[in-house]
Amino acid sequence: MTKHLLALACLAALSLSACKKPDDAAPAADAPKAAETAPAPAAPAEPMPVAEAPKAGFDAAAFAGAFAGTLPCADCSGIDTKVDFKADGSYTVEETYQGKKDGNAKGDGHWAAEEDGKRLRLDPNSKSDQDRLYEVVSNDEIRLLDQEGKKIESELNYSLKRATAAQ
Fold this sequence. Notes:
alpha+beta, Lipocalin
């Protein structure tokens, strides 16, 4: 009879433990409902300030004019360069490769100021030529930049100066 009581006690213990719900399962099931019923955060009392666009401080017509100088050359003593920026957004460029036979080149296209007048982009009409970028150092000086618009790290002079009417 003790065997039957022991077996009966084990069955009772098993059946009671199977019926009991775990305490930590209930809150997890209710959590999504709580999030759904939570009120939305209140809107800020004042609107957030909107970042202002850079002020257009670059006057293309006033900047227009000719810039000239001698730029470094990989296989000659220098490239005499003259860029004429016109007020209508067009430009012409003349280059003479020093010491080169047939070393003259001419080009034209359109130019635009970028970064609120801190950089100039020359977009050539010739599809085989790449855009050129210049940093505006001052109203009277521009400096050639690399193709990514970064300064060329060199001791060589990459500047062109505003040309006088006599040049």
